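can u do me a favor
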């Protein structure tokens, strides 16, 4: 394994009193960046080599389908091997030092690629803990990270204890956390312990809006994919779809057929699309969601222990949609006739994480969407959210606090991981 470039020239400069020339600095920076990229490739290689172990661990921990974990790992490996694409985002910027993160239980390999790749590229050290719900994944990922300089996985520690240690440890300058709104508020009270604090809050009910001139086949294909992938256990999975009345039946039938055809069962079966929902908290969230929609017509879905068949519900155009924090395979459909009313309804939420729309919209509508949501997808067509696009939410779905000139600046919206792990001063 390549080692970090030695400091022989720096030592010589201290002895002779000679300052480095611009050429010396450029060469040293190039060598340093080359080493950092080697580390990201090393992490990619080790992830790929342990893919089968991660598939089994994720299936045992949370019931995640092996085919989904395989795609997550492949996506993460590709992301890490192409980190050079992000060099323009971080040139002439400085690392913070030690960055700490608490990983969520979904997609830990993807989180490692995003946070770990960004930390390695920018010269930070990443110290991170895992969800208590994924102990097997934590062990495998810790073993993967072992020889990668700059990564410090902490397995087996309670996340509250890990967070408290980060607050006390003055070497930790940046903290990334995710969870319910109360989690963000708890750490906000300790913001002075850091230079920067990220909070990735709940997605709420990410929505799709299908306007009158949309391609119904493209819209229904995306909605069906993005509602139930990984059993709806990503913060980016869709939970509601507002569909123009003229297209409603067509989109409804395609989504319902897709949901009913999904194989539910053994997560290690390569044909399984939705594995058992092993996380009891997620099952309770689904049950509460059903209770909050007593007027909705259930088209499909049921819960039998850990076996959860995807829920598709529909409401009338005049019925309200609850504004709730939701996780799991749940999709609520609603028709609309007037676009302006649909727009008003979809932005009337405490959560501003994600919105996808199909068809064409006016510039003022696009501006409204961007004001309310961190991520806005215009007629999207993908299965997994691309890892190199800006990520993050607004309102209760996320915020960033950063010290600038001795004062705190608060902002929200989508961000680029590697850019945010550097500073200009």
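np, heres the sequence
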């Amino acid at each position: 394994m390549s080692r970090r470039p030695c400091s022989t020239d720096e030592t010589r400069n201290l002895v002779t009193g000679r300052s480095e020339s611009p050429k010396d600095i450029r060469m040293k920076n190039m060598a340093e960046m080359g080493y950092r990229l080697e580390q990201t490739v090393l992490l990619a290689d080790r992830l790929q080599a342990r893919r089968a172990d991660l598939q089994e661990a994720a299936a045992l921990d949370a019931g995640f389908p092996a085919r989904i974990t395989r795609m997550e790992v492949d996506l993460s490996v590709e992301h890490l091997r192409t980190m050079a694409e992000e060099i323009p985002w971080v040139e002439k910027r400085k690392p913070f030092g030690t960055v700490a993160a608490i990983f969520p239980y979904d997609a830990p390999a993807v989180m490692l690629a995003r946070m770990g790749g960004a930390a390695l590229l920018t010269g930070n050290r990443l110290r991170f803990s895992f969800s208590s719900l994924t102990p097997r994944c934590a062990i495998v990922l810790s073993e993967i990270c072992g020889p990668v300089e700059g990564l410090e996985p902490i397995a087996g520690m309670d996340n509250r204890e890990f967070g408290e240690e980060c607050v006390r440890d003055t070497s930790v300058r940046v903290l990334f956390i995710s969870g319910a709104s109360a989690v963000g508020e708890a750490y906000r009270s300790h913001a002075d312990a850091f230079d920067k604090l990220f909070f990735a809050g709940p997605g709420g009910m990410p929505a799709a809006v299908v306007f009158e001139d949309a391609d119904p086949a493209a819209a229904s294909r995306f909605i069906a994919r993005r509602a139930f992938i990984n059993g709806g256990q990503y913060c980016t999975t869709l939970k509601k779809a507002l569909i123009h009345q003229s297209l409603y039946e067509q989109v409804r039938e395609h989504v319902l057929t897709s949901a009913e055809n999904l194989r539910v069962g053994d997560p290690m079966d390569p044909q399984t699309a939705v594995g058992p929902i092993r996380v009891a908290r997620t099952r309770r969230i689904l049950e509460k969601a059903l209770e909050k929609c007593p007027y909705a017509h259930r088209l499909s879905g049921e819960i039998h222990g850990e076996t959860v068949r995807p829920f598709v519900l529909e409401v009338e155009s005049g019925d309200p949609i609850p504004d709730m924090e939701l996780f799991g395979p749940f999709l609520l459909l609603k028709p609309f006739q007037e676009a302006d009313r649909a727009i008003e309804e979809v932005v009337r939420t405490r959560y501003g994480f994600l919105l996808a729309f199909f068809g064409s919209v006016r510039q003022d509508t696009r501006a409204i969407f961007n004001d309310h949501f961190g991520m806005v997808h215009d007629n999207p067509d993908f299965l997994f959210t691309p890892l190199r696009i800006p990520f993050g939410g607004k309102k209760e779905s996320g915020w960033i606090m950063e010290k600038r000139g001795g004062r705190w600046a608060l902002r929200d919206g989508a961000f680029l991981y590697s850019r945010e792990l550097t500073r200009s001063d």
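Residues 224 and 258 are 6 Å apart (CA to CA). hope that helps!!
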